Amino acid sequence: MKHFTSISEFHRISGYEPAEHPLLSLLTCQELTYCSFGSSPITTDFYMISLKKIKVGNFLYGKTNYDHDAGSLSFVKPRQVMAINDIELTEKAFVLLMHEDYLLGHPLHAEIKKYGFFDYEANEALHLSPREEQIMWDLYHQMDFEYRNNPDEYSRDIILTHLASLLKYSQRFYKRQFLNRSPLSGTTASRFTDLLTAYFEDGLLQTEGLPTVKYLAEKLHTSPRYLTDLLRQETGKTALDHIHLFLLGEAKNLLISTDNTIAQTAYQLGFENPPYFSRLFKKEVGLTPHEYRAQFLN
Q1: What's the distance, Cα to Cα, between the start and end of the chain in Å?
Q2: Co-location of 174 and 189 in the same domain
Q3: Do residues 30 and 67 share a domain?
Q4: How confident is the model over 44-100, as pLDDT tens digits?
Q5: CB-based burial of residue 272 (10 Å sphere; 0-12 exposed, 13-18 middle, 19+ buried)?
Q6: Do 218 and 288 reside in the same domain of the chain?
Q7: Is 190 found in the same domain as 56?
Q8: Which UniProt keyword terms apply here (predicted)?
Q9: Could you count the other beta carbons within 10 Å of the beta carbon of residue 257?
Q10: Burial class of residue 105 in the structure, from the number of CB atoms within 10 Å of its CB (0-12 exposed, 13-18 middle, 19+ buried)
């Protein structure tokens, strides 16, 4: 696996002209006619934000091939694995490469880590409407103007201000995407519950332990972060919240229908630590497992 520590090395291997800044690069379709790093995955020390439509070739990010829809914005964070093979892009495209060190000492250094879409898989890229795409291009052009202008003490701050706006718009447009996809994704919560039910009925809680969000996301062909954001938009609860609520629902049934001890109930539900099970039960139900069972015995 090839790891790029610098943007200049990435430019050189890609056959691009040298970047204007060692920690920042802004590229458009003129420079991006072709790009390939062979079949081996690569990682970098920089953020990559790209608006593109792939004419031919393959962009593998996580375990998923990038879909080729027009106006798709994707986000890659440092040290995330991707593969770029024989890519040719159509007319309107831009890629912003920003080394993580470019953010040092700026509020965006911490803020950028809060944007969950840097953890989405490529097929969960942001699909933009023409109006939204124009907003992104306007922000890109403003960054590009500062990037290619004579730099001064204000240049980095102005560029990062525009980048912060781009990220905020992206967050807004992702929420729109969740809502627009509701006819397709509106059953996510029910499919999620069906998976949990099957996991329980197949006895996997005893053999495999508690199901993880990652495991369930893979079953639903999405990334853990995107699944959590989709469920939160749909139901107001995260994927982990849904797992806990399902398990506690089963726990309630076991507590009033069996004579198992609290520890046995916890183990049956995949909890390796019975005290943790009791604390979670108390937090969500408002009673300890003993108190919950006692009210039915009385």
Answers
A1: 64
A2: no
A3: yes
A4: 999 999 887 666 556 665 544 444 445 688 898 898 877 666 566 666 788 899 999
A5: exposed
A6: yes
A7: no
A8: DNA-binding, Transcription, Transcription regulation
A9: 9
A10: exposed
Pair type for strands 64-65 and 24-28: unpaired
| CATH number of the domain that residue 283 is part of | 1.10.10.60
Q: What is the pTM of this model?
A: 0.67
Q: Strand 94-99 relative to strand 24-28: parallel, antiparallel, unpaired? A: antiparallel
Do 197 and 266 belong to one domain? yes
Summarize pLDDT for 201-236 with one digit per residue, the tens: 888 988 888 899 999 998 888 889 888 888 888 778
From 180, 196, 230, give the residue that closes a domain. Answer: 180
Strand partners, 95: 27, 50
CA 81 to CA 4: how far, in whole Å? 11
Give the separation between CA 241 and CA 237, rounded to whole angstroms. 6
Domain that holds residue 276: 185-297
Residue that finishes a domain, picked among 180, 198, 215: 180
Distance, in Å, from the CA atom of 155 to the CA atom of 36, rounded to the nearest integer, reads: 32
Angle of helix 289-297 relative to helix 239-257, nearest 10 degrees? 40
Examine the domain organization and report whether 216 and 117 are in the same domain.
no
Same-domain check for residues 157 and 226: no
Torsion 101-103-104-110 (CA) sign: negative
The 3-state DSSP class for residue 20 equals: coil
Q: Report how far residue 271's alpha carbon sits from residue 224's, in angstroms, rounded to the nearest whole number.
A: 21
